[in-house]
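Think of the structure tokens as a kind of shorthand, similar to the way a musician reads notation: each symbol stands for something richer, in this case the local conformation of the backbone. In the example below we present two proteins back to back. Begin with the first one, reading the sequence and then the tokens, and try to describe in your own words what changes along the chain.
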Amino acid sequence: MNDLLIIGGSAAACAGAIYAARRQLDLQMVSEDVGGEVATSGEIENWLGVKHTTGTELAAAFEAHVKSYQIPWDLGYKVSKIEKQVKGFKTTATFGDKEKVYQSRSVILATGAHPRELGAAGEKEFRGKGVTYCTVCDGPLFGGRVVTTIGGGNSALESAFMMAGLATKVYLINKNAELKGEQVLINKIKAAPNVEIIANAQTQEFFGERFLTGFKYKDLASGELKTLAIQGAFVHIGMVPNSQMAPMEVKKNAVGEIEVNAAGETNLPGFLAAGDVTNTPYKQIAVAAGQGVTAALSAVSYLNAN
């Protein structure tokens, strides 16, 4: 039985693993991939001490740092269930037809979150070919082009405002009659000369050949199907936490985020969580890394006390 099982492969998980290894815990890592959403990011210029990198490069750096501590890491395994037992936790993971079971005294869940998808035609086909879910990451790639941001909350408003300074034209597509973000952001968007707000619009299809060239939406007021010529689409309709495998006893909020305290502890002793899978605000790489460290140190305290 391991002292600690860390589930995840991005900033929170890797930072936590390094700190746990330095405290000489008997630990194991398991994750589907390395980097998570970080690896899908484009240019990164907000990682402390590194003026410029990319998501792929940063994910590779995470992996190399973890492996320098010779931490056992099962890559490619998807965790399907975590169960609380009398002593510790039983975690089940699969890789194709193979199943693996882990026994550990404590667990850190750092599986992050994934962008909520629209479910529109062509969305999956053009992801990374014009359709993106991170304006901060990929917005600069669409400078001087015509783009659309889809959503009506703060993240969508921030996306549209950022692109107003980069693109020649920005369409802000909102399925509701009114925008739902903060008024200060709404005012900025309405004052931007190259932003056009299209309300009561439901996304129907993304299309193009090799890359995205157009977008169709349904006017919910008239029922008419309309088309826009665009080169980029930024989807900001929320994030979905990857928390479905957590023990049934663990408390989550209304959107499925695992509720943690300042120490990364959940309501279930020995089960900790860090990063975007939790209810902590500001889903950023640097924040997640700090939470991973906090959870690892909390795991040490828990193990010492038990």
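Once you have a description of the first chain, move to the second and do the same.
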Amino acid sequence: MTVRVLLADDQVLIRSGFAALIGSADDLAVVGEAGNGAEAVRLATALRPDVVLMDIRMPGMDGLTAARQITASPELGEVRVIVLTTFEADEYVFEALRSGASGFLGKSVEPDELLDAIRVVASGEALLSPRATRSLIARFLADPRAGAPAADDPTLDVLTEREREMVSLAAHGLSNEDIAKRLYLSPLTVKTHVNRAMTKLHVRDRAQLVVLAYQTGLVRAGDAEPR
């Protein structure tokens, strides 16, 4: 099955480069190009791509607002967003995840990494490794501008104790295989628990699950990894 990709970037040369690269893969295809956030939302609604590659800084509606609108739309529940960023220099990475993006990439990403990232996100998984995601989320949550978790947040009350444990370990950067070894379970059992937690919490993928774990205070920046 071909993964359908929408490109959103205000720089024509960057869009052209990404389009040529994606077009070189047999299992990927560019179905549209947008030069700003409003156009990205319109084309996402019209074309229903599997993945949107979204630049943050665009004229008019920026990429964060566009990502928020796309991921909040019930009609676009299957559309995944990858935010393109200057990475270390970009202070909006955490806000991108909080806006519903499934992950983020630096614009200097290697060609094979970009293609693999599109495939990973299209399959419903979080883009970055859990540990890398945790590291960046923790760094941005440590910034006072990110806001402190609400006291006695009831969001996680829908989870069983086992599911809360899975979410906590995932937020600390453990993969399903790592959690399985830690708890003497099969990776399939862990995946089932994690997927149930995502369903109950109405999050799109693992990246959103990790964000929620920090937002609710289940895990805090600087916490030691549980033993």
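Compare your description with these statements about the second chain. Residues 3-127 form a domain with the Rossmann fold fold (CATH 3.40.50.2300).
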